[in-house]
Amino acid sequence: MWETIIVQPFTNLLLLITMLVKNFGFAIILFTILIKLLTYPLTAKQMKSTQAMQDLQNDPSFKKMQEKYKDNREKMAEIQMKLYKEKGINPFGSCLPTVIQFPIIIGLYQAIMKVMASTPLELANLERIIYPFLDVNKILPIQNRFLWMDLGQPERLRILGIGIPVLAILVTITTLIQSKIMQPPTQANDQSAAMSNSMMMMMPFMMGWMAYQFSAGLALYFLTSNLTTVAQYAAMGRADWSKIFPWIEPKKEPQKNVIIEPEWIEDDDDEVGDTPEKPIKPSARAAVKRQRPKRKR
Amino acid sequence: MKKKIILTLVLLTIAALVLSGCAAGVRAESTPGLTVSDDHVYIAYLSRVFQIDRTTGVLVSSYPEKPKPSLVMYAPPAVSDGAVYFGDLANQFHKVGDGNLNQITWTFYGAKGWYQAKAALDNDLVIVPCTDRNIYALNSSNGELVWDFKGDFAFIAEPLIIGDKVIVSSQDHHILVLNRNTGEELYRVETKGAVVSAPLYDDTTGSVYIGSFGKDLTSFDLETGEINWVFGENRELSTIWGTPILLGEELIFVDRAGTIVALNPENGEELWTVEAGGSVVAGLAKVDDLGFLVAREDGNLQFYGMDHTAKWTATISGKLYSAPIIDGEQIFVAATKADSILYTFNLTGQPGWSYTPAK
Fold this sequence. Notes:
The complex is a heterodimer. Chain A has helices spanning about 1-20, 25-40, 40-60, 60-70, 75-85, 95-115, 120-130, 135-140, 165-180, 190-215, 215-235, 265, 285-290, and strands at about 145, 150, 155-160, 160-165. By secondary structure, chain A is mainly alpha-helical.
């Protein structure tokens, strides 16, 4: 089922592109960009949704409302739902596109792995899923050579006898750039920001390690995917380049409109009459939960 | 600040350990590599090469002794004069002792790609096909490189050494014939598609037979390189994965769709066809004077008599991608996605021992 709906069409599309451009390296690049472009509406929707949710959560009145109803979760949820409805915010708006994109990304990865068949068994499995209108004989074998790389083997550029993993280095750098420019603004002394920073530091090295260990074809896909994501983000005007290049002036946050009218939080006082006059200091866990920035994707 | 750094370092270490565990595992999926010698059966699969007593099915030794997740092997070992030769997916090619697989005589580190196919042995020379697009000729006593031949695609089929020539199946739509002593290309014969199986040589006529992904079977004269005939141009065939066999006066091959075809080896004239009833990647194995075996992809093993009618069928609950080996009265079948990696049968299809590696 999964193979028929996702992997097989992707594999055949990748093979078709390979046949047309006659170069597997270019085919991986074009294929990745094409899939990224096709899923762009989902990415854009996800970014907008995340931004709207972030704006709402950063709104002082919203925070006030959360503070006021912290002991009445039902009431808080009810007001939140009303707010979401009124402001046209879908609380699942940022995760739904990610959920839809996930199988596409996995399918893209699996298609690339399938086409890079290097054993008789992998070739047999590849031949089995090629559509009849594509001539197997004209497609196979795939020429894995691209620039200095053998796309079926881990990539090393030999300079003076030393194998330099150029792709792994580029994947690490581009993943770092991607994480940096996509990082949402955080507040000082924010514990979630510390965690987020740790992840941001860890991810590029994880990706770089994978690019170092796995075949160059996959590393090329990682690199293209990173660059396309950064380009898409920049095209939407959301990239803050000052996080990468300190000499660039930081991007100014647009003046936020007040999202919540005070009446949302001023009525229904009776229902929360038992709220103590002196506000109770929220627990660290609750504070973190409220301030945690939404994941972009 | 210090806490943050420690946290980052801990997370990085965990990630590196987890990823190195994943990354050092299997990088390619393939079938068990099977070889049968006088006393033993050798089978390379995943992290070990097993030496099994061919009568009892009991494990004699393995390389390495305990499985190493970082080591993966699929290439069928080559056995000669008390030595075993095999390559792995860590780009290393080894010679070990027949009596003790852990006694490494030498290791060749010169390749930049892994080994998938069986090496060909000829006295002092080991000819090794490699996925880094090279054919390496090594000195069998010390593992030193004698010559290497650079091709355009990965070499994944066993070469054939005939006198002073080496016949190499190539995925670049050619059969290459090299000088055994120097590695120099003597000539090449064009096929209609990629060749992924070992060629068949008939020493009585001096002809070589080979099938390709181009849905054709080619016969050429080894001495001159001239094509004798090509079968498949006016015939609806599928891709050909296995090595053909010569049985009596007939040249028999099977295509991926399971059509078994017999030809006159002299002129390529079609004699008869039989449908195996399922996809065939492994090809055929001949049983002298009795018939031949067809290993279907779905685990169905069929024996056909000399009159090309099916005599018996055995089923393995797995997939068959490599040709069975028939040696004496025993049939050896390597399977994937099955309960065991190796099954044996007698010539009437009765199952014998099977081998499952200990976890």
